Amino acid sequence: MYAKQQLLENLKPDEVWISLQLFQSKSDKELQRVAEKIVIEKEGKVLDFGYSPSPIDDLNKFLKFKVNKNTSYQLVYQDANGKEKRTEIAVKDQEELFKIYKKE
Question: pTM here?
Answer without folding.
Answer: 0.87
